[in-house]
TrEMBL record:
Location within or outside the cell: Cell membrane
Histidine kinase domain span: 1-151
TM region(s), chain numbering: none
Species for this entry: Microcella daejeonensis
Protein name, as recorded: Sensor-like histidine kinase SenX3
Length: 165
């Protein structure tokens, strides 16, 4: 089934709006969202939702969280950026593991199970894509989901038939 990326982003942002307001985090979105992918809308919403929820949870208010969409060739990239606490380099590989949380003591204080990012990874992979992270402690993090998008073939439109001489 074809899923509209604009609907996915809008729903994921809406789901985080109340928390963001309460924690004085501004959600800022940009980019061209007019594209579609093959897959499951609810799964994609939950993946983007998880990334935004993390970005809010691991920010220090007041702050901004960016949700950007970009398209290149046959992939759509959804990037969620925060200016939060970041992740130490030696932990970066592990954040997508189930139940893994950076600094267990600190993580316990903020609640959560450590499942969010493993779900994001599964959803991205189930859609033929992947998720990547860039992060620096004290500076922030960017999580990027890349998924193949539906590319409309111009040649699929009916072509005028030339009469033979
Ligand atoms: P939950 O299951 O409720 O999502 P969680 O947020 O702890 O719990 P994940 O979303 O899987 O679990 O994230 C795993 C760990 O990666 C987090 O505990 C946190 O230490 C780190 N992390 C994830 N996102 C960020 C972020 N945007 N900035 C800093 N650290 C992050
Ligand atoms: Mg989480």
């Amino acid at each position: 089934q074809q899923v509209d990326i604009d609907r996915v982003i809008t729903a994921a942002i809406d789901q985080n709006r109340v928390t963001a307001d309460a924690q004085r985090i501004q959600l800022v979105s940009g980019g061209d969202r007019r594209t579609r992918v093959w897959g499951d809308e609810a799964m994609l919403v939950s993946a983007v939702h998880n990334l935004i929820a993390n970005a809010i949870q691991y920010s220090v208010a007041p702050a901004r969280v960016g949700i950007g969409v970009s398209q290149r060739d046959d992939v759509v990239e959804i990037a969620v950026t925060d200016q939060g606490i970041g992740i130490p380099e030696e932990e970066l590989d592990r954040v997508f593991e189930r139940f893994f949380r950076v600094d267990q003591a600190r993580a316990r204080a903020t609640g959560g199970t450590g499942l969010g990012l493993s779900i994001v990874k599964h959803v991205a992979q189930n859609h033929g894509g992947d998720v990547r992270v860039w992060s620096q402690p004290g500076r922030g993090s960017t999580f990027t989901i890349r998924i193949p998008r539906v590319v409309d073939e111009p040649s699929a439109a009916p072509q005028p038939v030339k009469a033979r001489a």
